[in-house]
Amino acid sequence: MHELSLHILDLVQNSLEAGAQTIWLGIVEDAEADKLTIRITDDGKGMDEATVSRATDPFVTGRTTRKVGLGLPLIQMTATQCGGHLSIASKPGQGTTVEAVYQLSHWDRPPLGNVADTIKTIIVANPGITFYYLHRVGHKAFFVSTQELKEILGDIPFSHPEVLAWLDNYLKENTANLYGGVQP
Amino acid sequence: MKTVEDLRRLREELKSQMRVRHEGGTRIIVGMGTCGIAAGAREVMTAVLDEIAKRKLEDVVVRQTGCIGMCEKEVLLDVVRPGEPRITYGKVKPEHVPLIIAEHVVNGRIVEDLVVGKIIE
Question: Where do the domains of chain A lie?
Fold first, then answer.
């Protein structure tokens, strides 16, 4: 995948399949430490130690529709190729945290890409979950809580055309603002 | 720059405009497994949301789903109109989305060329 924001979508789908009701996404770019960290925490069904240790094996998967699972192995590959690592912490019944760390300045690090479209997809296509998104670049930060948005909207869905237009502008402008006005 | 306050104002405007709430509208479901995402599912989803906003469609429900095993036919997009069979479109590109929405979602005419499956629910 050519964008880290596509890997984020992939990790969120894993959380959804684990039955998560709440998903926290954190993206932190720290130029001083030369690190880009992506962390996803969910309250899904979790995994035992043995399953965690096999989770990055492409020939192990939780799904029943086919026998390979490439999501985590692909993320681990890009992270380790870029001077970083992938770590997974999980407990049955308590949820899972997946953290991918990249060397920010690494030549081969894929761009974060269109994170606004990734966030919009997660919010609109999964209105039943609570989703928190915190994105920090240096001293700037952008935070979205779907709990807050849902309280404002009441019975109006995220897929209402006017709400979609607002959400699109809100996410694009605020993520671009983190990068001095340009798309990451 | 857009703020949450803008959403509050929008909500007040919509409250006064909303008369009939359409229940049980058409559902659009996009496959978002690793296979789907790698094949361009996010771009297809973005095209769907753009089209809903552009055509001001108020009774469409959008959802994502995981891998259903037809990875070679990704991106998979399902349209389910109330009381009609679930139609699965395969190898969907963002440029197909306006056609699927105009023909199938709005006018109820299935875009046969892109269909890979039909399920009566």
Answer: 4-178
What token pair was written down for A137? 């670049």
Predicted confidence (pLDDT) per residue in A140-184, tens digit? 999 999 999 999 999 999 999 999 999 999 999 999 999 987 766
| DSSP structural state of residue B114 | G
Cis geometry, peptide bond prior to residue B75 (ω within 30 degrees of 0): yes
Q: Nearest by CB to A177, which of B1, B38, B60? A: B1
Give B106's pLDDT tier (boundaries 50, 70, 90).
very high
Minimum distance, in Å, between the CA of residue A72 and any CA atom of chain B:
9
Would the pTM count as exceeding 0.95?
A: no
Record: fold of A4-178: Heat Shock Protein 90 (3.30.565)
- How many Å apart are CA A102 and CA A34, to the nearest integer? 8
- Give me Rg for the CA atoms of chain A: 17
Nearest to A152 among B11, B43, B55 (CB): B11
Tokens of residue A52, six digits = 């965690």
From chain B, pick out residues whose CB is under 8 angstroms from the CB of A181.
Answer: none
